[in-house]
Amino acid sequence: MKDQKVENTSEPYEQKAAVKTLISSEFLTPSEIVARLDKYIIGQHEAKKAVAIALRNRLRRQNVSDDLRDEIMPNNIIMIGPTGVGKTEIARRLAKLAKAPFVKVEASKFTEVGYVGRDVESMIRDLTDQAVNMVRNEKSQEVKEKAAALAEERLLDILLPTVPSSPYEHEDEQVESAIGKAKQDTDIEEAVNRKSREKMLERLRSGRMEDRQIEMEISGDSQGGMMQIFGPLGQMEELGGIMQDLMSGLPKKRKKRRVTISEARKILEQEEVQKLIDMDAVVKEAVQKVEESGIVFVDEIDKIAAPTTGGGGKGPDVSREGVQRDLLPIVEGSNVATKHGMVKTDHVLFIASGAFHVAKPSDLIPELQGRFPIRVELNNLTEEDFYKILTQPKNALIKQYKALLQTEGVELDFTDDAIAELASVAAQVNESVENIGARRLHTIMTNLLEEMMFAIPEKCSDEKILIDKPMVVDKLDKIIKDRDLSQYIL
Question: Do 170 and 249 share a domain, yes or no?
Fold first, then answer.
């Protein structure tokens, strides 16, 4: 009895431990999320920390009891900092880590809503479309092997049509022997046909027939783009989606075309994948993904924040505040009609960003400010940061250029002092012209390597090229010193 009591009292702790194990084993911890982001983004630890906590809280919410789960709202974030410091990249990489639907929108697109601006609900429609594509691609990978096998069978049917059944239908005494002989001949033909299909299948899989042309029926797709004209017309966007769904239910015209076996295999595999995927289940899962893990990145939110004037009132542009009023119910949580059904936005994570050079976060309407409780300020990039950006990330700019030239048989390398000089130039130009952050490195690298990239296919193949500091100084020094010239070139 005593042992039984001990076992019963420990059961809740075992259940809690099981939940903890599930969280830690299947999902990234906040520190692991930051470490993954560090592979692509230099610095900005506070912003990474904020988004890591927001992502982890989503998982924690899933493990909360049902009566509280719907009450836990996402902590939306405003990132404050100049362009090119990593705001968008943090949000994009976060969505990839979470395998979550992600869409980036610019708040300035909504500044004249009702005239030429977009309906703010379109961001949720775009997010849902993104989720449907994501889930459909996942399901396609799951049935890829089965679809390939079915496509092979259809290819064999085109190359070697099956033997037709016996044409004899009469069974009177005079033709009995003829029927028997015909059936025997048919059995022989079927056996021969099976062997022929096996040989043909072997040849198909060996790749020896990829360039052979065959004639096959292909479903026409002429109706696909017809409804796209409704897209930019605000409310007509939803009507366009509904009409497109109705048209997709109609039988599509099929036409004969001559294609290579390689092309035919791809076409047939796509058709088989579509047959194997349950699109109703895909849409249902996609909508759930949007509602539970969708991420919307609203860039340039400072453009819809009307700065206070000297007299303490608001500026003359009322459309900015109008956009905030339209945006508010979506951030608060509402139902948005999409062509895939109604989507609830209560638990969509919104990450906003802006330079806030003129306006301040406090210039947003109070209701919207309250829906973005987390504020993180991103730091300006220093010369040391530029050096790290050029060398450390997995997708570092220098690594990209090396990989590009490797395709031409050219080995490109940079000395350490050359990289330091590039970082110094980027910092100088950002200070003297305009601070565009890490994007300045793209401009500088392009100007440094432009002539070489142009000449490589003819003059520099199968060579080693070393970029050193004197070469960087020689190429860029004149542009840096001439401020008017640097404004246009760098």
Answer: yes
CATH (domain of 98):
3.40.50.300
**Residues 29, 23: Cα–Cα separation, whole Å:** 8
Q: Are 124 and 118 in contact (CB under 8 A)?
A: no
Structure tokens at 448: 């440094």
DSSP conformation letters of 263-316? HHHHHHHHHHHHHHS-HHHHHHHHHHHHHHH-EEEEE-GGGGSPPB-TTSSB-S
Which residues touch 238 (CB under 8 Å, ≥6 apart)? 125, 337, 338, 339
DSSP label of 253: P
How far apart CA 343 and CA 188 sit, in angstroms, is 60
Pairing of strands 374-377, 335-338: unpaired
In 277-415, which residue ranges form alpha helices assigned H by DSSP? 279-293, 318-332, 366-370, 383-391, 397-406
Is residue 331 situated within a structural domain? yes
- Supply the range of the domain harboring residue 479: 383-489
Residues of the chain with pLDDT under 50: 1-25, 113-116, 165-171, 222-234, 310-316
162-209: pLDDT as tens digits: 555 444 444 455 555 555 555 555 556 666 667 777 777 777 777 777
- At residue 192, the 3 state secondary structure works out as helix
Compute φ and ψ for 364, nearest 5 degrees: -70, 155
C-alpha angle 110-116-119 in degrees, rounded to nearest 5: 45
Nearest to 252 by CA among 225, 216, 218, 214: 218
Nearest-10 Cα torsion for 430, 435, 439, 444: -20
Residue 68 counted as domain residue: yes
User: Helix, strand, or coil here: 33?
Assistant: helix
Per-position b or e across 101-139, b if 16+ CB within 10 A of its CB: bbbbbebbbbbebeeebbbbbbbbbbbbbbbbebbbeeb
Paired tokens of 95: 């969505």
Q: Which two tokens stand for residue 234?
A: 């605000």
Length of the chain equals 490
Q: Distance (Å, rounded) from C-alpha 138 to C-alpha 386?
A: 37
Distance between CA 471 and CA 477 in Å, rounded? Answer: 10
Question: At 378, is the secondary structure helix, strand, or coil?
Answer: coil
